[in-house]
Amino acid sequence: MWAQRMPSIRAIGIPIEQIIKGKSRNRVWLVLSVSFLFCFSLPYYQYSSSISSNNITATSPNDYPDSDSSKPRNLNYPYSIPNHNETHNRESNISMTASPPRVNEARRNFTDVSGGTTARVNRLSSMPICMNKKNGTDLKSKEDSCWGRYIYIHDLPNRFNNELLQNCRTLGSWVNFCPYVKNNGFGPQLKDSGGVISNKSWYRTDQFMLSVIFHNRMKKYECLTQNSSTASAIYVPFYAGLEIGRYLWGFNASVRDAAGLALVRWLREKPEWKALFGRDHFFVAGRINWDMRRDDNSVDWGSKLLNLPESKNMTMLTIESSPWARNDFAIPYPTYFHPLEENEVFEWQETVRRQERRYLFTFQGAPRPNMTYSIRNDLIDQCLVSRRHCNLVNCKTKSRICNDPVHVIRNFKNSVFCLQPPGDSFTRRSTFDSILAGCIPVFFHPGSTYIQYLWHFPKNYTKYSVFIPIDKVKNGSVSIDKVLSEIPKEYVLAMREEVIRLIPRISYARSKLRGIRDAFDISVKRILEIIEATRKKTREGKDPSNDFPEQKSWKYYLSGTTGKHEWDSYFET
Ligand SMILES: *[C@@H]1O[C@H](CO)[C@@H](O)[C@H](O)[C@H]1NC(C)=O
Ligand SMILES: *[C@@H]1O[C@H](CO)[C@@H](O)[C@H](O)[C@H]1NC(C)=O
Ligand SMILES: *[C@@H]1O[C@H](CO)[C@@H](O)[C@H](O)[C@H]1NC(C)=O
Ligand SMILES: *[C@@H]1O[C@H](CO)[C@@H](O)[C@H](O)[C@H]1NC(C)=O
Ligand SMILES: *[C@@H]1O[C@H](CO)[C@@H](O)[C@H](O)[C@H]1NC(C)=O
Ligand SMILES: *[C@@H]1O[C@H](CO)[C@@H](O)[C@H](O)[C@H]1NC(C)=O
Ligand SMILES: *[C@@H]1O[C@H](CO)[C@@H](O)[C@H](O)[C@H]1NC(C)=O
Ligand SMILES: *[C@@H]1O[C@H](CO)[C@@H](O)[C@H](O)[C@H]1NC(C)=O
Ligand SMILES: *[C@@H]1O[C@H](CO)[C@@H](O)[C@H](O)[C@H]1NC(C)=O
Ligand SMILES: *[C@@H]1O[C@H](CO)[C@@H](O)[C@H](O)[C@H]1NC(C)=O
Ligand SMILES: *[C@@H]1O[C@H](CO)[C@@H](O)[C@H](O)[C@H]1NC(C)=O
Question: What phi and psi values does residue 323 have, to the nearest 5 degrees?
């Protein structure tokens, strides 16, 4: 299924250089305003930093922007602002041209869209005003622990979600997705790992199943409401990534766009839409944004779902967001560990903490011979030179190992650092696999993580990762072995501890864990904050727009400003 991820340069029509170096975006400075005083203090978690008696700390709250604090919140949307001076993995050798996708006979009919309008819902006035809770006299939130957190799940026609799973054979041209939709989207359970992983809660999860996993978890969310007018957010359970995955290769634009257009047509007709023009809606698209961000004037790749005017009013979650777009946010790729109880998390954290690691660094991946900007060949060469320190798993020749979660975890558990270069796009699922194995990620481009998963990772990236600029690898002026060998041992241990703390934050648990937030909890909390901010602006009669140029979204979200940034050259347009 990795082959589904992204085609060769030729098939996609957009050289990776353009993505990596920054590509010319549609300069519509559409906006959703983002600065506001944070008065939306959620009575969310009784969160404590020492959640377990045996002295294992799952996360260290103060390092993370979403940690609760007894101090009054005064954050800027949607992240707290870092110090401004601060400075994917299923691989395949399948060539796109070798296996042309077959014409999909099972194409769905998206033209029949029903959607009646019933009573007009006015959430604008029915929602409680964002309250000043400084002295804790806010009765509404005291009586109702779900206040401000209610979510309404839109009852979409089956063709937007369940039918895709029922017709799982149509989801991939080369890969049979049917096993992967099992177990609520976690895929087949992993067993008999020879002690590499624990016997429970591990699955052969496909990287594109996020929307299914998210939906199933949302069904168990503790503050669902049947009454959309009491909801703080409207969840649209459209499996956008699975849907477009069927048509990325060999279909024309109208086929690729049909479902998205049908969806927004359906949504627009609903009373829920009319209340806030969809600004309180969100959906989860489990593919990289490039697969759904076609610009009518530019590349012929993917659908234009994320660029539709309706979508721009919604909040969209993807596994890789665009640096130049304001309304999509990246959340972790699903990896293989889906705990049911917090103890499983603590046990796994302890396992990787105690793990002896034979190699200094590991690179697992396939080269990208046709991408001149790719450094994967350079990494492979460096790894071969540093044989004693580096474990090379070349997925061009070892695709079986690269596709086997137990092998992947075993390799990453056996290494102190894991190299995470860009591949077909900025990000890799491998990043999350390595964190899960307690292997400190080494990044080469800030687009691979630092500007992506701002909700889930510490804002100070030096705490959990090593950054080696891609240009230095490309021009041969840096030895990765040398850089990594020279990092002091205490610092390596501190970084690994931070990586281990990230494990629950990047995992999608099977249900809510006690005392710790998983990737789902963190995402939901952030979405509610974003939507509340928009609602507040709208209620105040302001146009939720124009706070910053959309082109500079990455910078604004990262630092809270749009001035010069040391990473400008990575995202030049
Ligand atoms: C950032 O750096 C500038 C110049 O070096 C300095 O004047 C400023 O105080 C620094 N700001 C912070 C927040 O550290
Ligand atoms: C990768 O290529 C080798 C040799 O060409 C082939 O045997 C193998 O099946 C390929 N792997 C996949 C996943 O197609
Ligand atoms: C789509 O569905 C509608 C209603 O079921 C039907 O009238 C129409 O012919 C279908 N279109 C196609 C292209 O199958
Ligand atoms: C809390 O706020 C209410 C209403 O604004 C006020 O009457 C009350 O005196 C305040 N209580 C404290 C302890 O400040
Ligand atoms: C996992 O299961 C295997 C056999 O099913 C067993 O040998 C092994 O001890 C189990 N491991 C753990 C950690 O329970
Ligand atoms: C839904 O909530 C609104 C506002 O709280 C309330 O006025 C309305 O009666 C509720 N509708 C139903 C069907 O409960
Ligand atoms: C797109 O492809 C579909 C089916 O493959 C075909 O019916 C339609 O005419 C094509 N549209 C255009 C604009 O080429
Ligand atoms: C998007 O929201 C704005 C108000 O913020 C509204 O004027 C506009 O019509 C909405 N767009 C759509 C397609 O609903
Ligand atoms: C790279 O490009 C060459 C020449 O166009 C082509 O033959 C080869 O299949 C491509 N390799 C991959 C992995 O796409
Ligand atoms: C970031 O983390 C590193 C390592 O813990 C630390 O040395 C540095 O001072 C931190 N930077 C900031 C701005 O907090
Ligand atoms: C390599 O690239 C880096 C970063 O752009 C630059 O600082 C360095 O001077 C270059 N070294 C050589 C030998 O070209």
Answer: -65, -20
Q: 354: buried, middle or exposed (CB in 10 Å: 19+, 13-18, 0-12)?
A: exposed
- Radius of gyration, alpha carbons of the chain: 23
CB 435 within 8 A of CB 409: no
Where do the DSSP E strands lie in 72-205?
A: 151-153
What are the per-10-residue average pLDDT scores of the chain (573 residues)?
34 38 34 30 30 38 49 25 25 26 26 31 41 45 84 98 96 90 96 86 96 98 96 98 94 94 98 94 96 82 95 96 94 97 96 97 93 92 96 92 94 98 94 98 97 96 97 95 97 98 98 96 97 89 80 94 95 84
pLDDT at 370: 86
Q: What angle do CA 170, 172, 173 make, to 5 degrees?
A: 95
pLDDT at 87: 24
Query: For ligand 2, is residue 401 a contact (CB within 6 Å)?
Result: no
Q: Which atom of ligand 4 is nearest to the CA of 132?
A: 5
Q: Is 132's C-beta closer than 6 angstroms to any atom of ligand 4? A: no
Euclidean distance between CA atoms 130 and 175, whole angstroms: 48
Nearest Cα neighbor of 496 from 439, 413, 419, 442 is: 439
Element containing residue 410 per DSSP (H, E): helix 405-413
* Pocket lining: 53 vs ligand 1, CB cutoff 6 Å: no
User: Tokens representing 144?
Assistant: 């109702």
Euclidean distance between CA atoms 556 and 78, whole angstroms: 10
Contact 327, 316 (CB under 8 A): yes
- Ligand 2 atom with the smallest distance to the CA of 403 is 13
Residue 477 Cβ contacting ligand 1 at under 6 Å? no
**Other beta carbons within 10 Å of 71:** 6
Query: Residue 202, SS3?
Result: strand
State residue 140's pLDDT score.
58
328-330 vs 233-235, strand pairing mode: unpaired
Q: In angstroms, rounded to a whole number, what is the distance separating the alpha carbons of residues 222 and 296? A: 41
Cβ(16)–Cβ(374) under 8 Å? yes
Q: Is the dihedral of CA 303, 309, 315, 320 positive or negative?
A: positive
Q: What's the CA-to-centroid distance between 108 and ligand 3, angstroms?
A: 10
pLDDT score for 539: 82
Q: What DSSP line would sit under 457-525, residue for residue?
A: S-S-GGGT-EE--HHHHHTT---HHHHHHTS-HHHHHHHHHHHHHHHHHH---SSPPSSS--HHHHHHH
Whether the CB-CB separation of 251 and 303 falls below 8 Å is answered with: no
Whether the CB of 137 sits within 6 Å of ligand 4: yes
Contacts of 486 (CB under 8 A, 6+ apart): none
